[in-house]
Amino acid sequence: MNQPVSGKTIGRLSLYRRVLYGLLAEGERNIFSHQLAVLVGGTAAQVRRDMMAVGYTGSPTRGYDVQDLTDSIGRFLDSPQGQRVALVGVGNLGRALLAYFSGRRPKLAIEAAFDTDPAKFGRVIHGCRCHPMEDLSSLVKESGITVGIITVPADQAQAVADKLCQAGVLGLLNFAPMRLWTPSVVYVEDIDMTMSLEKVAFFARQRANEKGGV
Amino acid sequence: MNQPVSGKTIGRLSLYRRVLYGLLAEGERNIFSHQLAVLVGGTAAQVRRDMMAVGYTGSPTRGYDVQDLTDSIGRFLDSPQGQRVALVGVGNLGRALLAYFSGRRPKLAIEAAFDTDPAKFGRVIHGCRCHPMEDLSSLVKESGITVGIITVPADQAQAVADKLCQAGVLGLLNFAPMRLWTPSVVYVEDIDMTMSLEKVAFFARQRANEKGGV
Lengths: 214, 214
Hints:
The structure is a homodimer of 214-residue chains. Chain A is built from 8 helices and 9 strands. Chain A is globular. Chain A is α/β, with parallel strands linked by helices. At the A-B interface, helix 1, helix 5, strand 7, strand 8 and strand 9 of A face helix 1, helix 5, strand 7, strand 8 and strand 9 of B.
């Protein structure tokens, strides 16, 4: 359990759990590693390795117990007491994310949103209250927020990241289209939507050319 | 130029270009590979390899010409006549993406949005007209749309992907939290926001524990 675990493994565990939630909703009780592999687009060997990281082994005859496996992944991924998240930048994207994450993971709830627009101060948007940027530092510290989501424009993102890190946040999900500079202790994950769209467009065009029989 | 190029390379080229746009706006004329490397969080050797893929070489004494390099990357990444994009699912996230991408890349414009809600039919949202799902197939074919963005709930995503692929789309940017099944010719890029947030939370917690000196 104390072995270092890669971001890819954590990503797959998150995906397994979501698939397992779906199976539970459909009343499935057991699943074999090769079946789970098909559902996530992986291999059975990969699934079994990942479950070993979680410390869960199935039965050779009945496979994994869906409920037990879901619980095991939850114990591995989630903090028992939950983790609190702050979102900074309540524009179109920020609001969409508040709606998207609202109620999705009780152990990982967006506790507070921050913006510079006074018209938004005090408003509750998709269940989350919006505060002035000036209150970020104190609120993050008081609430024990450890995760930040950055949805401000690129030219404000570094200043926001600085504030969040100074307040004690240790993980950032960054939607601003730029690379952040952070202390090495802080984990940063970028979601770069423009880059992703340009990638899709490039390969779509390449495949169109191939289809054209060049 | 005909060598296969990886998704990672395309991603970096997209990132270089964005940094170069910023430099152009600041009036910078030349940049060395090691300077560009710092700005994107990479190495100078990597930058030089990537620029060779684009077919651009700088001067040993003055580095890269910022404008020429920007243009070269553009010729490599963009289709000369532009590519058209459809977005399916005009909920909170879909609307936020219409706003986000509006006017950002003239050669990669969202031409049409689709939804099942009649209240949205005919409306222009952030510059993009919303059409009924029934018109997807004909409109995608008529407009020569080759790229699709999927922002519908998970349980509708596969049906939407099927429709887009059948209409001739060759690249999908999928925000629905599930793995799509598509013909092998279609390039799919997933943006899995829940997975990303869970990853950030996991590593934030791990680092909090390390900081605690366990």
